[in-house]
Design brief:
flat; about 0% strand; mainly alpha; about 120 residues
Length: about 120
């Protein structure tokens, strides 16, 4: 139960009490991951959307597309902090991505997602 930015905690520990414990996403990872990597970003797969808001948004997106049916695609991409966002991180020799890195990867992911949806029709 991670608090939000204002220190509040969610009222329940589950998003949908009557639903399964997990929902799989309709994500063509075999296309999206290589696309991000081809843009020079060392992207990795994860089976965890994180805690609180990220998990909630991921769950609701998956739930909504399942209810709607059709060739919908759901992908959840965690975006790391930008290099200039926190100068203290440079003291730790941690090198997050630049804005250009994220734009290149984002464009590659969107193009791969569009190509995936087109081939499923």
């Amino acid at each position: 139960m991670v608090p939000d930015a204002e220190g509040r905690r969610p009222p329940a520990s589950v998003i949908a009490p009557a639903a399964p414990a997990t929902l799989a996403l309709r994500t063509p990872v075999q296309r999206l991951l290589p696309a991000a990597r081809s843009a020079g970003v060392p992207a990795v797969l994860s089976n965890n959307a994180g805690a609180y808001l990220c998990n909630y948004l991921c769950w609701r997106a998956s739930e909504t597309t399942r209810a709607a049916g059709g060739p919908y695609l759901v992908a959840f991409v965690h975006v790391p902090a930008l290099r200039r966002a926190n100068p203290l991180l440079s003291l730790l020799r941690w090198s997050p991505f630049t804005q250009d890195d994220l734009i290149r990867a984002g464009e590659a992911i969107v193009l791969a997602a569009l190509a995936s949806v087109r081939t499923r029709r």
